[in-house]
Amino acid sequence: MFEECVDIQPEWREFGSSRLQDRIGLIHVTPLTKIHGRYNRDRIYGLLETLTRKLWHMPQQPFFSKLEPPVFSDNVGLVVLEDCGRAIGYSLYRLIEIDDSPVIHRWFSQITPKYQGRQLYRQITRVIVQYAIDRFGEKQIYYCGRTRTPVGWQALEKYTKRLAPDLVYGKYHPDLIRIAVGMREVIYPRKTLEIPTLGMRNAFEDGTQYHIPRHIEDKRLDEIFYGQPIIEHLDAAILFVGELDEREIFK
184, 193 in Cβ contact below 8 A? Predict the structure, then answer.
């Protein structure tokens, strides 16, 4: 069991840091394999566990240290938000190439409720996307995540030009479906992906439940999302893949 941890290690700032708003700062460590030593890695695990359990009902045993593929991999990056040396949020992401198409996989993201509604998620996203642009140049970048709430879906949809599955217009995008299938093979190799709905059973660990808003203001879209049969299962989610809209992110 990892100790509760929200204190920032000063040396983490050496990997890359910036000031966002007032006292709020951002630290970007990529790849996470730059963090060496069991003590330092346990501090990262403790931070992820602590912030995540504030918003989720999760089993008490360690979660992040058991993930496959592991958190400390060459394609995994971490953005941490801090307020006066205390972590208030994070985003764990992966950069994966599917048939030469770079994909940003938003693996896990949490922001403490007190700090939500301040555009901090957008600023985290800008840092991640800029890193991907610097790495992949002029290639079209894709955006991927799983969710079981329309709130999570909107967070993906607003940063993309096209999204699969297309819950709004019902369009079929075979290129996005192809990338989704490739992503499933890499990140969820033991899961079954429904085509073309991209529904996925056993997407969340047993006993894991969100403490986040479950509805959006647009009642029509809210009903469309919860009308997806897969969402009836408490362990299920929908895998979304979109064509990243860089202008929207940086406007």
Answer: yes
Total domain count, the chain: 1
Residues in the chain: 251
Residue range of the domain that includes 214: 140-251
DSSP H/E element including 43 = helix 38-53
Specify the long-range contacts of residues 46-50, CB closer than 8 Å, at least 24 apart: 46/2, 46/3, 46/4, 46/5, 47/5, 47/6, 47/80, 47/87, 47/90, 48/90, 48/92, 48/108, 49/2, 49/4, 49/5, 50/4, 50/5, 50/6, 50/87
By three-state DSSP, how is residue 150 classified?
A: helix
Separation of alpha carbons 67 and 83, rounded Å: 28
Whether 226 contacts 214, CB under 8 Å: no
Are 19 and 36 within 8 A, CB to CB? no
Residue matched to tokens 């408490």: 234
- Residue 231: inside a domain: yes
Q: Over the stretch 107-156, which tens digit does the pLDDT of each residue have? A: 999 898 889 889 999 999 999 999 999 999 999 999 999 988 888 888 88
Q: Is residue 181 in a domain? A: yes
- 209-227 pLDDT, tens per residue? 555 556 667 788 888 888 8
